[in-house]
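Dock uridine-5'-diphosphate; give full complex structure.
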Amino acid sequence: MNRLETYEQVVGHQEITRLRYLAQGLRGARVVHVNSTRTGGGVAEILSWMVPLMRELGIDAHWEVITGPPDFYRVTKAIHNNLQGLPVPLKDEDLQLHRDVNRDNAEKLALEADIVIVHDPQPIFLPEFTPKNRVKRWVWRCHVDASRPTRRVWKHLESAINRYDAAIFHMAAFTRPLPCPMFLIPPSIDPLSDKNCPLPEDERIETLRRLNVDPDRPLLLQVSRFDRFKDPIGVIQAYRLVKPYYPDLQLCLAGGPADDDPEGPEVLREVMEHAGSDRDLIVLMLPPNSHREINALQRSATIVLQKSLREGFGLTVTEALWKGKPVIGGACGGITLQVHDYHTGFLVYSPEGAAYRIRYLLRYAEKRQRMGRTGHEFVREHFLLTRHLRDYMIMLMCVTQKDKARIPTPFAA
Ligand code: UDP
């Protein structure tokens, strides 16, 4: 059985038929995705299933990764922070380095394609340095909340974005006035991946024990890169406010490295300092590809937190909802698409607010279960990979439309 047939058991026959039908119009089209890391973070997570599935549908899909010296990642992380509204100083030389690395990569990467989809700001200048005959159409896929960028960084990026044929954002609130067509496509998870598939009970328990988490006591969990926008310190503050009322309570902060995020070790140090010697506060630095470990933690959590201060989408929220967990999430970005008060969890604005909602959910087990069931179905309907792929194929058809009539006649399947 191929992968698409396996997904049929989760999303139904009709959805897969629709995908196969849409793919007819894109058969053989060469599509190249470019991002800045193969492991760590949501973009890598998505591309690792999307590229093989596109290929299975007959699209000639490839995945290229931009690379540069360590300073490049420092600069692009600062650009990312500025794009999400945090003013981190950047020198002219820094912005020049961003462009120079893009120029070098434009020569090195295999970009020949009908469409190149560039993810996030790191490779955003590739169109400027790629000869026109190598790529027919460029699409910029923005995964972050770019609604309130700092002026200087937006000016720097705008000059690059103006060369694109289309841009994709997660939600309307993230869009900015741009001269190209814009598409709204929220991300999704793969329900059959190691991160999200059902786990045998003995594996779940064994994994928890190995990670020093007690499987028999209530567990709060936040899975995130160690990044200040994810507010790990705020999560610790919330846990400390609740702990006196629930002495059994454990908090696990699980994160891992991302090649393109150099701030991780520094934030991890801050988190360890705040964690102190509390044996019920478990900070885990997991190696890349710890998907089954994260799966086990999410399935074991009593409540999942994602107390971000800015968030593109928050795949960790989707993963938790899919596993039937209520989520307490920071009221920002894509978390607001997924967490709905009293239905799938609670949106919060402060550590105190998070603590208040944690106490409520710890107290009412049946409400946790009801929210968990609602969350699971909500993800099935809106945030599984098949919906995501369908949106991408429609976008690809619209963008290639100018080249040739690739769109199949409606109802001809
Ligand atoms: N993730 C992981 N290991 C970690 C931390 C995160 O595999 O130690 C995964 C997490 O399960 C999710 C993705 O990385 O699939 C994070 O995506 P999200 O959209 O939540 O945040 P981003 O890191 O892209 O800002």
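Observed: The longest strand covers residues 113-119.
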